[in-house]
Each structure stands twice: as structure tokens, then as C-alpha cells.
Amino acid sequence: MAARFYSLASEVAVRARGPQDYAPSRMALALLIGTLLAIAGLLVTSIQGFAVGSGLAAAHPVARALMARHVGYAIPAVLFSLFSQSMVIFYFIGTGRLVKDETRDFPETERRRILATLRDLKRRTSPAATFALFSSITVFVLGGAVHTRALPSWSHLAASVLALAIHVWALAAEWRAFGDNARLMSDPRRFAREGA
Length: 196
What we know:
This protein is mainly α. The protein has one domain (25-194). It is built from six helices and two strands; from the N terminus they run H-E-E-H-H-H-H-H. It has helices at 2-12, 26-53, 60-102, 108-147, 153-186, 188-194; strands at residues 14-18, 21-23. Helix 2 packs antiparallel against helix 3 (60-102) and helix 5 crosses helix 6. The protein is elongated and about 70 Å long. The model is unreliable at 3-19 (pLDDT under 50).
């Protein structure tokens, strides 16, 4: 079991430059890139939506073209957000389970320190990821309501700006947590002895 864990941990975290410097796993990097793509998509679609909603696109054919692109970019942006943020939540659940199983025979003080770190990682990432998920869904639903003229356009724009801010918060929280998780997964016993 220990050999399997450490071979998995070597895929999850590798030493980059020094004893305290660890790189996140390829999966963590993919999830961070997914969040960055969601942020880029939200930014582009927000700019497009503002151009259409403010009348900057005065000619009707141009406004229709911008709206078609707006929806065309919004769908992948929301999908990137939904995928990356839900996978962040599952990533920390899965790696937490792996570490808990590996450390069940550790001395109680070391195990408590590791379990506290795992709880802290989830505490730091789960709210941001969950709010990012909900904010993307909200922006998308409000966009449909604005398109059918059930709501004013400012509500959709305000929700998209808020969603952007929440995604930036999620990216920052996840960036730090993935680094801490890589350090923990590379050698749980050393992590427990050295402290978080």
C-alpha cells in the first residue's frame, strides 16, 4: 500500500527546485487552466454583452452577430466553470481520502495534524468552488431572462461582474491549496513532523 501511495504521490507532487518547493500535479494544473479559461470566457462574454446592451453595436446585423457570439462563448465558459470547479471539489475529496487511508497507522499527533490540514484545504477551496459554480449558473440563467426581456440587462451584467470576481477568488484559493496539497501528498510523514 505504501509503495502504491508514494508512486501515486510522485505523480501528484514532484519536487521542483528545493526541499520546500513542490509543483502541483498535472491534474491540479489542468483544473487551474480550466478555471483560467472560465475566467477568460466570462470576461470576453461580459465585454460582448456590454457592447450589445449599451447600444455600442447600433446596427442591427452587427448586434445580432455579437449576440450570437455572446451566447456561443458563454456556453463553453459556463461549461469550463462547471467542470473545473466541480472537479476541484472532488479532487480534494479524493486526495484527502488517499492521504487518510495512507496515514491511518501514523502516531495520533501526526495524524491529527494531517487531518487538520485536509480539513483546512477543503475549507479554503470548497466555498470558493461552490460559489463559482452557482455564479456561473446564475449568470447563464439571468442571460436567458434578459434575452426574453423578463429582466433588465443590468442584472445580467452585474451578475457577470460578480461571477468574475468569485472566479478570481476561487483561482487564488485553489492555487495556494494545490501547492499545500502537493507538499502534503509528496511525503505525509515529513509534512506531519515539520508542520504545515
